[in-house]
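User: Predict structure, ligand iron/sulfur cluster.
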Amino acid sequence: MIRKNQGYYIKSSDDVLKDLGESGGALTTLMKFLLKSKIVDGVLAVKKGYDIYDAVPVLISDANKLEESAGSLHCGTMNIAKILVEYINASPDLKLAITVKPCEALTIMELGKRGKIDLNYIIMVGVNCGGTFPPISTRNMIQDVIGVKPDDVINEEITQGKFLVETRDHNIKEINIDYLEDSIYGRRSNCRRCEMNIPVSADLGFGNWGVLEDYVGDYSFVEVFTDKGAEILDKAVESGFLKVEKPSKDAIKIRAHVDNSMISLAKDWQSKDFKGTDNDILKIFSHYDGEFNKCIKCMGCRDACPICFCEECTLEVKSPEWINQGEIPPSPLFHLERLIHMVESCTNCGQCEDVCPVDIPLAKIWHQINLRVKDLEYSPGMDEETLVLFDLFKRPE
Ligand code: SF4
Ligand code: SF4
Ligand code: SF4
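Assistant: Predicted complex:
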């Protein structure tokens, strides 16, 4: 019997998905089981868009179409929580399984606390995440550093600290990620600092960390985080979609070692990125005055942020006590206002920084301030507990 807080080796019984999916296709096979058994109405995931540097969201209700979402896309930089809310607003009774990175699982949990998502209708199937890559600079890196035409790449992969590409003629080339990150390339800056590489706030966490050599390619190491996760995995095994084995002590040790190494690397990046700033929230904020002054108030960061949830945004200058209609609020106040609304729940997903047209390091600033919130022993998205401040912003029933 599958239990919460345990890890398992899980293998797919589906020969097609086994070859198409990541780590033996176990995750895609679980999604197939959930759709076929009508536990969910749909699966929200990402699929390849224009090319491998472009990940687009897809809602799949036909189990035979799951193949299009199999595999991973490391240039898939969106936070799917934002899309999930759109679907739920359009159809509140929809039961969905959703593939999530750790920061997306944290965001969904935060949105659940605010009544934007009913978590009872959602199954979060998480994947371990060592980071995502910015699409444009990754294309440049593949051209300039690896020496391959970006459009000739048909697959990319990250394994054991290396970024690998496979070309149309099935040549594989690799490069060390540390080497890239000593230059101008590498993972998105929020991902470098991210300590949350295992999706602990999802129902289940899939990945290949801890999969020993003899099992690589056939098995996923799956960690069960909730009773809901245990129940669906149990049912998928009972129905013959998945097979289960107990991982060895070595496997568990290796998985923990990979996670600890990622955490330690993230802390090194935090030290580098936050060097020279104070620990006090307002002092951190004023340290970035110069950056905030570059702001052109395009509202892109607010629109991209999955945590911004107010029905009426005070930044839309509708409140005369805040600023006259049609005027642009001064920069520090504009950002202070946003800080008050979201910083305790910021999940370091990086969407705000990705869209800023004047390159303000927004995710870095909010991450630094959010760490001070964590000093209060509150960590966004880890569970359903809220800070008192959250209650002030809850949507009325
Ligand atoms: S912030 Fe963390 S969880 Fe999110 S994509 Fe980056 S590394 Fe993955
Ligand atoms: S403020 Fe930025 S990093 Fe934080 S949740 Fe919003 S978009 Fe993500
Ligand atoms: S995206 Fe950048 S320029 Fe636009 S409002 Fe936000 S901080 Fe200002």
